[in-house]
């Protein structure tokens, strides 16, 4: 699994981003389950890749939440001045 570039991930829509986050969380769960049951077939580096991708996705999601919040607060400030 190659790591995606943040620029590519920012092009995803809200639904695609949520789906991708859910997929990576599921992948991490499966990896932990394989490790616990000693069925780990591949290397441990997959944990690092999955955690890093999840962090990238969640960062982009948070950036979008903050940008929407900033826009909303700016609009509220302009409305209250009038």
Automatic annotation (TrEMBL):
GO biological process: translation
Top-level taxon of the source organism: Bacteria
Gene3D superfamilies linked: 1.10.287.310
Family named by the database record: Belongs to the universal ribosomal protein uL29 family.
Glycoprotein in keyword set: no
Electron transport among keywords: no
Protein name, per record: Large ribosomal subunit protein uL29
NCBIfam families referenced in this protein's UniProt entry, alphabetically: L29
Pfam families xref list: Ribosomal_L29
